[in-house]
Amino acid sequence: MDLGRYRLIVFDCDGTLVDSQATILTVMQETCALLDITPPADDIMRRTVGLTLEIAMAHIWPEKSGAWHNEIANAYRARFREHRLHEKVSESLFEGIQDLLVSLRAPHLFLGIATGKEMRGLEITLNRHGLRQHFHTFQTADKCPSKPHPAMLLKAMEELGCRAEETVMIGDTSFDMLMAQAAKVTSVGVSWGYHSVEDLNQAGATAILDSANELPGLLLKLQ
């Protein structure tokens, strides 16, 4: 497939490739119940998806200490592992994602992931859906600073020898758009995720996708 100047397409995971919000919200509620604290409203929790867990907790409870944020983040991780162990994690692919990734397989194109997930969790998600073979670089929360820091994109470009003008970031949150801006790459938001289109535009999205199959045509228009 010819995408003009673009050689590296980097995707967010939660809210872009897979819909994991039901599990995320349930695990947060259960974690708070175990620690006897009031859980955040669902909308507040959704707005932190994509951040490293400790930073997400700091966004939700800014008045608490760093040690407290670490404690609840670790409790959340443990509860999430319990859900995985008992096969209670819901992470369905968004419509059209599988076909899109297949269509992008070409010798001159590289695909990557930049996610707030840790590598172990990302591999479980990708293997469950048979997606791992599509990607050439994996940038995760346990390897890089949290979004919107540009490190994930800079590292992906360095690994694959791609320049900023050849790279595009696809994501559903303002953190993805801000990260793309910081790395000086094209930023494409998706309308089916966890932040509103207004949020994505305010964060500097170059364009917005309403369905996965629009991506190739959109990238050609952005030349």
Give a verbal description of the structure:
The radius of gyration is 17 Å and the shape is globular. Helices cover 44% and strands 13% of the residues. It folds into 2 domains: 143 residues, HAD superfamily/HAD-like (Rossmann fold, 3-Layer(aba) Sandwich); 65 residues, Orthogonal Bundle (DNA polymerase, domain 1). Helix 1 packs across helix 4 and helix 3 packs across helix 4. The chain has 10 helices and 8 strands. The protein has 223 residues and is an alpha/beta fold.
Keywords:
DNA polymerase, domain 1; Rossmann fold; six-stranded parallel beta sheet; globular; about 220 residues; alpha/beta; two-stranded antiparallel ribbon; 8 strands
Quick summary of this structure?
With 223 residues, the chain is α/β, with parallel strands linked by helices. It contains ten helices and eight strands. It folds into two domains: 143 residues, HAD superfamily/HAD-like (Rossmann fold, 3-Layer(aba) Sandwich); 65 residues, DNA polymerase, domain 1 (Orthogonal Bundle), CATH 1.10.150.
CATH-defined architecture of the largest domain? 3-Layer(aba) Sandwich
Q: Label the structural class.
A: alpha/beta
The helix tally amounts to 10
CATH C-level category of the largest domain: Alpha Beta
Quick one: CATH superfamily of the largest domain? HAD superfamily/HAD-like
Major sheet summary line: 6 strands, parallel
Number of strands: 8
Widest sheet: strand ordering: 5-4-1-6-7-8
